[in-house]
Specification:
Low-confidence stretches: none
Distance between the termini: 32 Å
Shape: globular
Helix content: 25-40%
Number of helices: 8
Strand content: 25-35%
Radius of gyration: 18 Å
Oligomer: single chain
Strand order of the largest sheet: 6-7-8-3-9-10
Length: about 240
């Protein structure tokens, strides 16, 4: 269970996160929904120690996480909107280098792990290609494979479908569902409302750094009138 308790973050005098609290059971998906600038990506960045919260706590399985050591414990992993791949390295090296440098794997161990994940995500034949030679969907899968190879238990995805067509969006949704089925805890920051129909998830609508409404996706899709704020956002109506 991931528990986020009363997280606060102010940047340049503006409240970005305002007492944000939520729980995500293991093997579940939480979607942070909202327009740009509402705090959803900042929340993911705090979990990955890319931003520092002013106050609040994050617990995993009942134990408080020291977010300052996330880069050594690797409990949390991030897949960035623009992937942050190493363009000068091959597809295989994008996975093996972090394994060798961060987890101290031998070159042989790193290669075996990389090949396992590349095969899982249909990229093994591209092992010696470079990121510039991949499609947007392939880059997305590579970024996810790299994160999983580092043994993260909590997977954060920032706008995972922002540059993808509907077919690729469906494929990404299937990959996310598989992650949850494998026991990963998944958090997604997005403004793509089409994902809500493709995932079994909890929806957390954010505005001005707050969670203003939440709903289970299947219940929302069955009766949107019960969740007027999420319905307004999905319908493109200003709140």
């Amino acid at each position: 269970m991931l528990e986020i308790k009363q997280l606060n973050k102010t940047i340049n005098g503006k409240k970005i996160l305002d007492h944000v609290s939520l729980q995500v059971p293991q093997g579940s998906i939480a979607v942070l929904l909202g327009s740009s600038g509402v705090g959803k990506s900042t929340l993911l960045r705090v979990l990955n120690n890319l931003e520092t919260a002013d106050s609040g706590a994050v617990l995993f399985n009942g134990k408080q996480l020291d977010l300052k050591t996330i880069h050594t414990s690797h409990i949390v992993g991030m897949v960035f909107q623009h992937f942050n791949l190493f363009d000068h390295l091959t597809i295989e090296q994008n996975i093996t280098l972090p394994l060798e440098k961060i987890l101290n794997k031998s070159p042989e161990q790193a290669q075996n792990i990389a090949h396992t994940y590349l095969k899982t995500y249909g990229l093994l034949e591209k092992a010696h290609s470079y990121p510039s030679q991949l499609s947007g969907g392939q880059k997305q899968r590579l970024a996810l494979a790299r994160t999983l190879a580092l043994e993260a238990k909590i997977i954060c995805l920032d706008e995972p479908t922002s540059a993808l067509d509907p077919i690729l969006t469906t494929q990404v949704a299937k990959s996310i569902t598989q992650l949850a089925q494998q026991g990963y805890t998944v958090l997604i920051a997005t403004h793509d409302t089409s994902l809500l129909e493709k995932l079994s998830c909890m929806i957390y609508l954010m505005k001005d750094g707050n969670i203003i409404e939440s709903a289970e996706s299947q219940q929302f899709c069955a009766d949107q009138a019960q969740y007027p704020k999420i319905h307004q956002f999905v319908s493109g109506i200003d709140q």
